[in-house]
Sequence to fold (540 residues):
Amino acid sequence: MPISFVGPFTIPSMIYGSSPFKINPPVSEWKGIWNFNSSDTSVATVSSNILTITGAGSTIISATLTLNPSISKSTIFKVTPAVPKIGTFVIPTKTYGTAPFTLTMPVSTSPGAWTFVSGNSNVATVSSNTLTITGVGSTTITATQASTRNYATASKSAVFNVTPGKPVLGPFVIPIQYLGNGSFTLSPPQSSSTGSWSYASSKPKVATVSGNTVTLLSAGSTTITAKQAASVNYLPASINALLVVTTNVPITSPTTDTFGTGSNRFTIDFVAIGNPGNSNDMNGYGGVPYTYRIGKYTISQNQIDAATRNGLQNVTAGAWRGDQPAANISWYEAAAYVNWLNTSKGYAPAYNLTFTYGSGSMALWPTTPDNSGNVAWTDGGTNLYRNANCVYFLPSENEWYKAAYYNPTKNGGSGGYWLYPTGSDSAPNPVASGTNAGTAVYNQPLYIGPASVFQAGGLSTYGTMGQGGNVLQWAETSWSTSNTDAEEFRVFRGCGWHNLIFCFPPPSYRYDDLPVISDRYDNFPFNDSGDIGFRVARKP
Fold:
């Protein structure tokens, strides 16, 4: 059969993603059915005369008309990469100080990898897909998608705005100030901003502020407002602190008081407990609104014996010897010892005690002065156990607790409580004796007895020893804390040399000692024990 005329066979180039289409065969004078074939099915496939694009690239499309001989034509069909269809790319406005965050890639028809670039590194930088804010302002973040076989490279931009942030301010606490000091300098709170500070007083009659110098004018309280000006990256901010101005003379140094006469003289060391007005611990104890002093050590047997030689009566103790703690002493006996400290110096007794044949009882003090001027203590609330005119007294539970656990410099100067009465949140190491920091006399064999009161472990923040070991200690306070029932159980705190459970964790444990009901007296805080002693407190 002679070869007939066959026209040209071409297929225009297409873009990846184009819809399937019908192939137009070459023009021929012969009639018949054309068959089509693709040399690279990864670029295109043909079914009947419908071509479907499968990828970018080129393939040979052959068209064959079956005759004798057959007629065929071929053409190169090219598929070019498509431009990806990219969705929206938006980055919400952030404030300065916001932590680095991960950018969300736009939705795209291409699987190509994304890279991000910031047009202004003074506002933000991008590493991989993590954006880090560096300053206030605006920058263009360009997201670029790499090309793939089927898709061309593409990009999308978003304007990212950073507004000034709110400064992060640290605590602003002003310790109680003594009027006699005249003035003091304010220290600004820590701040994430570099803005300048200014100060104002809500009550200029109490205190005025010039620059950062506060001038004290009268006793009372005023609110000091610290204002920080706006900076490049931060908004203005302010914080308040209460300034209390008092006429009470501040106490900081320890003192030693001497008692007795001649060869029977003895001393008691006291440490100063300042920072009045501190808040309670989370368990409700430790807040004391006034300054006071408390014994650095528990009272020793030597101090009982010396007082007895000077005329002390109705106090036996005697469980231990020398500088070991005075124990086997009831609350009444401890109160009698305190009364003797007062009366030996011409002061009023602390407690309204009566001893009959060696057994004690107590009456409450009146709320208005009696004929001798005795009246109940009212500092920090009415206390019917304690005489307002005394100097020496048993520490209340709050006074004892504050001396043991409080640290005025904790929490950035706002104050707080340690877990242990050795100036630490870590349990002290148990020792039989010694004064090393972070130690306490506990968890020792019962038979060895307590250590010397001067060797009873490390010190509290205020400088007391042995509040977490050696012997437990009486507090003045009744179990209900009301001090309105003279016969109510009394609290004792601390830890004995042979105790373990009493010491862990010390802040949450309180104990009451049941009174012994004798044939002649009942419901008295009369019980004593070889592991319960006491310490003394006094006015500043």
Remarks:
- The longest helix spans residues 331-343.
- The radius of gyration is 44 Å.
- The chain has a mean pLDDT of 90.
